[in-house]
Structure formats: C-alpha cells, structure tokens
C-alpha cells in the first residue's frame, strides 16, 4: 500500500468524477488483496487441521499400541485419577482382582489393599515413587507382590505390581540357612572365623572372641586379618617372632593362596593352638582354631610313660611283646626284636602280629609259634591263658611262651629261649633223643590251647 499516498497527491488535479473513479478502483484492489489473503489463510488452516487430524489418529494408534502392550504384560498395571479411582488397568490387573472390565472396579481404596493405598498417598505427598510389598490371595494361595506407585503430573498416579512369592520364599530359605549356619558355628567347641576374599572378617563364634579376648563391638566392624594379627601381637597372643612383619606377610599370603594350611602356635603364655586355614567356595577362607595345650601335655606324659615302660622291659632277660585288642604291637623290649631278628624301624609303626609273623617266617622259617600267639590274642576266654607252652622254631631253637591278659584286653607274650637249658638237661640225664622223639616230647609239653593252635 506504499503507492496510495502518491496517488492521492496527484489525484488533486483531476476532476471530481475522476476522483471517485480512482477511489473505487483503490477499494476494489484492497478487497481483492484481502480475498487473496483469506484464501491463503483458509488453505493454511486446512493444512493445520489436516496435520492435527493426522497427529490425533497417529496418537490414538500409538496409544492403542501401548495399551495392547500393557495388556500383554503378565504383571498388573493401573492408573488412578486425582480422586483415587482407577481410570485404567491392564488385563492382568483385572484378572488378578476378578473384574471383567473397568466398570466393575470397586470404589476407591477397595481395589487392592491398604498397602497400595498407603503407597499412593505417600507418592502423592512426596512427589516421588513409593515402593512396598503387599499380599493377595491367588487361586486360594497367598502371594506376595512388590508394589510401585509413581505420581503423575495430573495429580494422579500409576501403579505396577510384580509377583515376588518365589523370591520371598528363596529369601526366607536363605535367611533360615544363614541362621542355621550361624547357630552351628556358635555351637562348635572350637574357635571359628570366616573371612571374605578381601580377608575381612565376615562371621565368627563366641569361642573365637573369647579365645583372643576381643570385644564383639570391634569384631562387628569387620576388621581385616592383618588388623587382627596386629591386635593379637599387642596382647602377646601370637608366637614370638624375630621379624613380626615378615611373619605377618607370610600369614596373609598363605590365606590368599587358597590352599589348606595347618600349623601350631605356641604362645608366650604357655598356650598351644592348632590352626587350620581352609578356603571356601565364596572365595574367602575360614580359620579353625583348637586349643591343644592339654592334649599335648597328655601326649608328652604318655610318651614319657611309654619310654619308662620300655626301659623297664629292656632290663628283663626275656623277650616281651604286648599286643592290643586289634592285634597290633603296642610295646616290646629290645630282647624281643633281637630274638626274632626284627629292626626297630619295622616295629615303630606298631605292625599287626600277622605282619610280624610273615617277617619272621621269611627270615627264620615257618613254625607254630605265631599260630599260638594268634589264638591267644583272639581268644575270648582269658582264663585259658597264663599257661606255659614250649615250641621249637624252624631254626632249631626251643622257646618257652607265657601268655597273659591285661585288664584293658591287651595280651602279654613272654618269650624265653630254653635251648641251652634243654641241652643242659639232656646232657645231665645222659640221653640222646631222635628227631621223632623230640617232636613227640615237644607236643607233650604244650598246653591244650597251644596244641589246638599248632594243629
């Protein structure tokens, strides 16, 4: 319209009728221009309406797609408006609560349970998701659901539920197993401590805390094994070491190697501990600590008593052997091993009398001596023992046997070499016996039990 002022300025020289015609032409031009603008606006509005209609159709299709997807979920999902009424729910929700459609959904608060109502109120109050667990009976059996309520911008809320019954049962079983394991650990008569893969204390029993004099409050802080060793050193509860740091590093390495380790600690106070470090499947290790002070003292006393008894038996001029109820050699003197050509290395492991008989048979020759001993050891009638029996060995020497039963059931066998005595008696009587007659005399001098064993 920039041309209109110039046209009016030049129109002052025209006659009046020309002026009217000029103004009419301008008006017509303005109307035509406005009509063109209106047509263009209508076209633009039509395009906008078409795009909006297409967007609405696409949104409806997408919404229907989402609704179908939510209906296909096996877990319940629902929407509530600001008044607390269920405005939408998927098929799993309706099936779980036995509703045919949304029109059958009950009044506010009656659809799920009190936990869901409380979570909804909390989510709307805090403007943050609220989570909890609720129970619901499904097909006559109680089920546990994990509930999540999320507040929406329109002051409504969206809810989701997941069946966690199996998870809850698994958690309950794991908790019971852990409690049972802890109860078993607590009832052990020895100290037990469990460390994780980082060598930090995970669990222990009261015997472990009492053994070292450690407070439960400090142990519940999960100290490392190295920190425990440092504290034990301050309490003089570790073996004396020339270089404690080297010893401590070796202890930590042995635990980290995940190999069974056994050692004995002799503490400065006179206490002795047997310590076993065993790896476990979770990647850590557990320590079993047993106080063996009294046991070592008893073993030392027993070893001393055995040495005294053996020294006493070595002073005798007869070979003596004591066999336990299991037939193993318990004690013997030096004359017994010399008489049967046995070395101490062969007797130190307490062999069975059958093994001794086999060794003697290979070196001296077979005879009825060990058959008599076998019958005596296995005899259930100790009154038949205590009799003397004479037996001739394969090398021609004559042995006199004495069998006796001890109160603990062991059998004492005394061997006396009667060869020289027999020769002296023969010379004194001026008799010379044939081999057949000697065997007959030998058999006549055997006790009834010995003759039965020889046969």
List the helices and strands and how they pair.
Blueprint: H1 4-10, H2 16-72, E1 77-80, E2 86-89, H3 91-96, H4 114-126, E3 130-138, E4 141-151, E5 157-163, H5 165-187, E6 191-195, E7 201-204, H6 206-212, H7 216-219, H8 225-234, H9 244-256, E8 261-266, E9 272-279, E10 285-291, H10 293-314, E11 319-323, E12 329-332, H11 334-339, H12 344-347, H13 353-363, H14 369-377, E13 388-392, E14 398-405, E15 411-417, H15 419-429, H16 435-445, H17 448-454
Antiparallel strand pairs: 1-2, 1-5, 3-4, 4-5, 6-7, 6-10, 8-9, 9-10, 11-12, 11-15, 13-14, 14-15
Helix pairs in contact: 14-17
Description:
- This protein is α+β, with helices and mostly antiparallel strands.
- It has four domains: 4-68; 73-163, PAS domain (Beta-Lactamase, 2-Layer Sandwich); 174-291, PAS domain (Beta-Lactamase); 301-454, PAS domain (Beta-Lactamase).
- Helix content is 49%, strand content 21%.
- The chain contains 17 helices and 15 strands.
- The chain has helices at 4-10, 16-72, 91-96, 114-126, 165-187, 206-212, 216-219, 225-234, 244-256, 293-314, 334-339, 344-347, 353-363, 369-377, 419-429, 435-445, 448-454, and strands at residues 77-80, 86-89, 130-138, 141-151, 157-163, 191-195, 201-204, 261-266, 272-279, 285-291, 319-323, 329-332, 388-392, 398-405, 411-417.
- The strands form three sheets. The chain has a five-stranded antiparallel sheet with strand order 2-1-5-4-3.
- A hairpin with a 5-residue loop joins strand 13 and strand 14 (398-405).
- Helix 14 (369-377) crosses helix 17.
- The longest helix has 57 residues, at 16-72.
- The radius of gyration is 53 Å and the shape is elongated.
């Amino acid at each position: 319209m920039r041309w209109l002022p110039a046209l009016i300025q030049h129109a002052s020289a025209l006659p009046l009728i020309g002026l009217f015609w000029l103004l009419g032409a301008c008006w017509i031009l303005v109307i035509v221009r406005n009509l063109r603008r209106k047509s263009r606006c209508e076209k633009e509005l039509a395009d906008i309406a078409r795009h909006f209609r297409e967007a609405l159709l696409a949104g409806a299709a997408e919404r229907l797609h989402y609704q179908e997807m939510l209906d296909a979920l096996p877990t319940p999902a629902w929407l509530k408006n600001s008044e607390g009424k269920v405005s939408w729910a998927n098929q799993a929700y309706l099936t779980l609560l036995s509703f045919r459609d949304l029109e059958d959904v009950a009044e506010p608060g009656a659809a799920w349970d009190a936990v869901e109502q409380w979570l909804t109120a909390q989510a709307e109050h805090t403007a943050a998701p609220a989570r909890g667990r609720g129970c619901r009976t499904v097909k006559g059996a109680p089920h546990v659901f994990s509930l999540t309520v999320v507040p929406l911008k329109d002051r409504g809320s969206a809810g989701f539920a997941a069946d966690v019954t199996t998870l809850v049962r698994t958690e309950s079983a794991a908790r019971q197993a852990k409690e049972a394991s802890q109860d078993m650990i607590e009832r052990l008569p020895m100290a037990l401590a469990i460390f994780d893969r980082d060598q930090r204390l995970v669990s222990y029993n009261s015997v472990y805390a009492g053994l070292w004099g450690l407070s439960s409050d400090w142990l519940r802080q999960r100290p490392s094994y190295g920190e425990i060793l440092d504290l034990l050193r301050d309490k003089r509860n570790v073996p004396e070491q020339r270089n404690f740091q080297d010893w401590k590093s070796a202890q930590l390495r042995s635990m980290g190697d995940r190999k069974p380790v056994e050692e004995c600690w002799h503490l400065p106070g006179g206490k002795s501990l047997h310590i076993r470090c065993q790896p476990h499947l979770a990647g850590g290790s557990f320590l079993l600590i047993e106080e063996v002070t009294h046991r070592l003292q008893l073993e030392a006393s027993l070893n001393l008593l055995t040495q005294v008894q053996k020294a006493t038996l070595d002073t005798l001029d007869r070979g003596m052997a004591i066999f336990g109820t299991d037939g193993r050699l318990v004690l013997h003197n030096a004359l017994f091993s010399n008489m049967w050509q046995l070395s101490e290395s062969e007797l130190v492991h307490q062999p069975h009398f059958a093994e001794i008989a086999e060794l003697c048979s290979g070196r001296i020759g077979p005879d009825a001596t060990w058959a008599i001993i076998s019958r005596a050891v296995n005899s259930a009638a100790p009154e038949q023992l205590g009799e003397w029996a004479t037996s001739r060995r394969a090398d021609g020497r004559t042995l006199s046997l004495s069998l006796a039963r001890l109160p603990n059931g062991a059998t004492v066998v005394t061997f006396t070499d009667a060869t020289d005595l027999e020769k002296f008696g023969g010379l004194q009587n001026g008799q010379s016996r044939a081999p057949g007659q000697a065997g007959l005399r030998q058999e006549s001098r055997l006790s009834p039990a010995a003759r039965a064993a020889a046969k």
